[in-house]
Amino acid sequence: MPNDSVLRGYPVGDSWAAAAQFVGHIEARSMALKLAFLRLGGLLFFDAGHAAADASRLAFYSDAGFGLRCSFPKLDTYSLRADLGPSRCGRHPACRRLAGNG
To answer: 14 pLDDT exceeds 70?
Structure first.
């Protein structure tokens, strides 16, 4: 499972290569706002999941945050995205910022 698409509020180095794992995502997205040659949108998200050696060791980790999406429909179908999501446990108190396309 790719680290950068699992829980947005946790460091990329956290291991998701385990025998037992669960992950879930919920997003509420806005309609895209048309501005000249581009489209802007926003979203709120909640992620939850964990990975462990076996199911008895699974714990609940989560994050929540917001993001922005920008696309250029005349040029390509991909969107530029930026998400900001602090982890919701004491182990990783700092926010993690993500930027990418897809």
So the answer is: no
C-alpha–C-alpha distance, residues 32 and 25, integer Å: 21
| pLDDT tens sequence across 70-87 | 998 888 777 788 888 777
Confidence of residue 96 (pLDDT cuts 50, 70, 90): low
- Please give the Cα distance from 70 to 19 (Å, whole number): 37
Backbone angles phi and psi of 4, in degrees to 5? -75, -5
SS3 14: coil
Distances (CA, A) of 22 to 63, 70, 92, 101: 14, 30, 19, 25
List the chain domain ranges. 3-101
Neighbour-count burial for 82-91, b at 16+ CB within 10 Å, e otherwise:
ebbbbbbeee
pTM, entire model: 0.69
